[in-house]
Amino acid sequence: MKSKKEKLSPQAERTKHHLQEAYIELINEKGYSHVSVTDIVQRAQYNRATFYLYYLDKPDLTEELLSEMFQQIKRTSTERYEKGADILTSAMDADSFELISFVYDNRSFFNLCLVEDTIPGLHGQLPQAIFEMLDEGFTFEGVGKGDINSKPFKLYMAHGTAGLILEWAKTGYEKSPKEMTDTLISIVRSFAAAFRVN
User: Fold this and answer.
1) Which pTM value belongs to this model?
2) Contact 2, 54 (CB under 8 A)
């Protein structure tokens, strides 16, 4: 198996992406515990030897998939801003906040949160990833006197955001990404006047 840090060729990256996509589709269809390596390679139209070039087993694929998706959550929320930038929440618009667009573009993955027999621990990992993004990426200036940069408050924000995302998924993404982003921005404005990118 290749080291996770080793730079892969574009073809290898495509192959891994196809294997991950097939895995996500299969969990959505029949549940995590019923998906085998054979199922994954048949759906992705590769052979088992190709799978084992990149992954030790299903748990190894699972770990990398979760790690990549949740690292992306952190990146999409901070990469559009320069470090040290101060942003007024009153100046935010749908283009200021890319988390919701990322969720929408990766609906098949986030739908796994709605599957009863899903990846073990997945439900806790979404709010944890959002919490880490808030905790590491942003310092908020509150509207009132409370400490909105405390761990409890950022956990509250993270779980609330994850809850809104899951409710959106349950509706079949009925609202547009712009409408959902506007909703989140209005919530942020209710407690934060500005934020700094760490």
Assistant:
1) 0.89
2) yes
